[in-house]
Amino acid sequence: MGGNLKGGRSTQGVVKIGNTVRRPAKESSLFVSEMLTFLEEKGCPYSQRFIGFDEQGREVYEYIEGVVQTEVGEMTIAQLEEIMRILRTIHDTTAELTENGDVLCHHDASPCNIVFRNGVPVALIDWDKCSFGKRWEDIIFSMWSSINGAPPNSEIIFE
């Protein structure tokens, strides 16, 4: 029996069935599946494992045990440092895929897409915005969403 998942910001149509997560396929599904398979083959432990597509055409991923926050917000320095280590590992692992220095960027590495165990970040989920880019794109977004506490797409006001 499956159930809707809680946590994150966008879980519409996402269900947990056994030890899997199923989500509606998107335009990015093929690219995401290729990149997650590459990360798995390289032994990168910080991403979801892509299993395939089910009979309903949904993406199927291995469920990662832990807690996912429902909002962006303040993180401890230790948590932020661990997120940066995770991003660096993913970036270093995928640097060989391009010749121009671009790496695979998650492009939404906020606390809402990070699985925590005992308060420690252990994996990134929800890769549908991933694409090749510059390392700083992931780093800046992740830092902003982890310490700012402002909702995505909101205006930051400095006084």
Automatic annotation (TrEMBL):
Residues 103-145 form the Aminoglycoside phosphotransferase domain. This is Aminoglycoside phosphotransferase domain-containing protein. It comes from Methanimicrococcus hacksteinii.
